[in-house]
Structure formats: structure tokens, C-alpha cells
Write a structure and sequence with these properties.
This protein is an alpha/beta fold. 43% of the residues lie in helices and 18% in strands. It is built from twelve helices and nine strands. An eight-stranded mixed barrel has the order 1-2-4-5-6-7-8-9, surrounded by five helices. The longest helix is centred in the N-terminal third of the chain and has 22 residues. It is globular, with a radius of gyration of 21 Å. The N and C termini lie far apart (63 Å). The N terminus is likely disordered. It binds ligand C2E and magnesium ion (MG) (3 copies). One magnesium ion binds next to strand 6.
């Protein structure tokens, strides 16, 4: 009906819109119930030093075991939650859960920093820094540096001054910040300049095709150079194969994360994975090509 009306025609009542709003509300209700019923859980993906094999962190990635739809990835439900205060509730759950996990690992003698993805909505939440401080107090044995916030580069930051303040407060508490999906947004350089991020995560889109796309190779070189100039650490996402790792190491990027190293896994599997995992021998031999 709405489609037939054509472009530019004004309609007082759009049945399709009404239907989708109703189903959105249903879905938001489902998320709330899902939280109550523990349908959400986190997987952890290792971040490593590709040369030494050292585990440098683990990124918490949200999953939803939906009773009817099965296992859902964040891309399937976060976009519609992002516009709703429920995102703050869910984000808070993720922070709590990830910190509890870091504390468990700490107890077991595994000192692994956890990285938590923070959505743009959460970054505009006024009490976020206070909330993080509260959560860290629950685990006084855990150094605050054990928490890293991954800030989405594409998450349009409406109020950059406010977000900068918020992140500065977090950094003063000892929490670290990284710029996620770096290079994909329109404000990469502004964010690099303004936000107190110690690490830049090169978006996987530039890494995946780098072996056969000269443009992506140039972008990767540019990002690495920029990160060096700003004295930020760089980690590459999307290290899918040994060849990707080789090229990155050649370019002087030692830190990596990707299916070629490990897929996201349950927290319980991570210690055993780390016991077993060794970088491919060809990685250890590579020395970086001196830049200029
Ligand atoms: P991200 O933060 O950039 O996370 C990396 C995504 O790439 C993850 O997808 C991961 O499973 C996937 N990945 C890792 N290595 C490889 C690889 O080698 N190849 C390919 N093709 N993919 C790889 P996932 O778990 O579906 O998450 C997608 C995005 O959803 C995340 O991107 C992040 O922006 C968001 N997200 C995930 N968990 C949370 C959360 O707890 N809170 C918020 N706000 N966002 C989250
Ligand atoms: Mg991330
Ligand atoms: Mg990313
Ligand atoms: Mg991403």
C-alpha cells in the first residue's frame, strides 16, 4: 500500500510503518526478556602478538541464543536496539559480564585484559564513566588496566567534546581505549587526534583483501604510518590466513586478531587454546622491512 503511493506523496497513516514499529516493540520486549532469561552470552576472541605468540587481550563479543530464531550475531539485532535506552541496559550487562570474566581469569592466574565494545549510544550516556568505576570497584583485585573499551570509529559521535571528556575520565581511572574499525568512518583523523586512544584497530576490510588489492595495501600502509606518527599501538583485525600475518609482520604490525589465529570462543576454552597455540613458524622468522 505504502509503496504504491509513490515518492513524495504524503500519507497520514502508513500501515507498513505502523507494522514495523509494532514488531520493533515486540523485538525490544524480547531483548528484555532475553536478558532476564540469560539468553545472551559472550564469546572471547584472542588478540595476540603474532611474532612472540603472547596473548595480549581478548575481545568480548555478544551473542544471543534466541529461542525461536537460533543463534544471532550482533549485526542482526544491535542496529535496532541502538536507538533505544535498552542498549544501555544491554551494554551494562556486557561490561559486568566481561569484568567478572577478567576477574575469574585473574583468580586462575591468567592476566588477560578484556576488551568491551561500547556503542555510540553508550558513549553519550552521561554516567558511563561513573558506572565503569562502580563496576571496577566490585573487583578491587583487578587492575583497572584489565579493561579496554573499543570505541566504534563509525559510531557517529554527536558530541565529540562530551565523549572526549568521558574517555579521558576512563583513561584517568586506568582503563584503556582503542579505536575500533579504524579507517571506515568519515572522522578517523579527528578521532585519532582528539580521543585518548592508545590503540588503533585497523578495520578488517582493509586487511582481508590486502594481499591482492593495491588500494587496500596503500590504506594499510597509511594507517600504520599515521598510528606511528601519533605513537599509538596498532592491531590488525581480520587476520584470516598465514599470508595476512606474514604481510602484517613485514610491515611492522605485530598485533593481530582474526579467524587465522582463533575464532571467538567460550571463556572456558581460552586457557586451553592459549596453552596449545603457537604462531606459524613462518611468522617468527620475519623481520620488519625498515621504513624509510
Ligand atoms: P568488531 O568489534 O569489529 O568485532 C570483530 C568482528 O569481526 C566480530 O564479529 C568477529 O567475530 C569478526 N571477526 C573476527 N575475526 C575475523 C576474521 O578473521 N574474519 C572475519 N570475516 N570476521 C572476523 P561479531 O561478533 O559478529 O561482531 C560484529 C560487531 O558487533 C563487532 O565488530 C562490534 O562492533 C559489535 N559488537 C559485538 N559485541 C558487542 C557488544 O557487546 N556491544 C556492542 N555495543 N557492540 C558489539
Ligand atoms: Mg571491537
Ligand atoms: Mg572492529
Ligand atoms: Mg566491526
Amino acid at each position: 500500500q505504502a509503496k504504491l503511493a509513490g515518492k513524495g506523496r504524503f500519507q497520514l497513516f502508513d500501515p507498513e510503518h505502523d507494522r514495523s514499529m509494532r514488531s520493533l516493540h515486540r523485538e525490544l520486549d524480547r531483548v528484555e526478556q532475553g536478558l532476564d532469561k540469560s539468553e545472551f552470552f559472550l564469546l572471547y576472541q584472542p588478540k595476540v602478538n603474532m611474532r612472540s605468540g603472547e596473548l595480549i587481550g581478548a575481545e568480548a563479543l555478544l551473542r544471543w541464543q534466541h529461542p525461536e530464531l537460533g543463534l544471532l550475531l550482533p549485526g542482526q539485532y544491535l542496529p535496532f536496539i541502538e536507538g533505544h535506552s535498552l542498549m544501555e541496559t544491554l551494554g551494562d550487562w556486557v561490561l559486568r559480564e566481561a569484568l567478572a570474566q577478567a576477574a575469574k581469569w585473574h583468580q586462575a592466574g591468567l592476566e588477560i585484559p578484556v576488551s568491551v565494545n561500547i556503542s555510540a549510544r553508550q558513549l553519550h550516556q552521561l554516567d558511563l564513566a561513573g558506572r565503569i568505576e562502580e563496576l571496577l570497584k566490585l573487583y578491587p583485585e583487578l587492575p583497572s588496566g584489565r579493561l579496554e573499551l573499543e570505541v566504534l570509529e563509525t559510531g557517529a559521535l554527536e558530541d565529540l567534546a562530551l565523549v572526549t571528556d568521558l574517555l579521558n575520565t576512563c583513561v584517568r581511572m586506568g582503563v584503556s581505549v582503542s579505536l575500533d574499525d579504524f579507517g571506515t568512518g568519515y572522522s578517523s583523523l579527528t578521532y585519532l587526534k582528539r580521543l585518548p586512544a592508545s590503540t588503533v584497530k585497523v578495520d578488517q576490510s582493509f586487511v582481508q583483501d590486502v594481499l591482492d588489492a593495491p588500494e587496500d595495501f596503500k590504506i594499510l600502509l597509511g594507517i600504520l604510518g599515521m598510528a606511528r606518527a601519533f605513537e599509538r599501538q596498532v592491531i590488525a583485525e581480520g587476520v584470516e590466513t598465514i599470508e595476512h600475518g606474514k604481510l602484517l609482520l613485514r610491515l611492522g604490525c605485530e598485533f593481530g586478531q582474526g579467524f587465522g589465529i582463533a575464532k571467538p570462543m567460550p571463556a572456558e576454552s581460552l586457557p586451553a587454546w592459549y596453552q596449545e597455540w603457537r604462531p606459524p613458524p613462518s611468522w617468527a622468522e620475519l623481520s620488519p622491512i625498515p621504513s624509510n
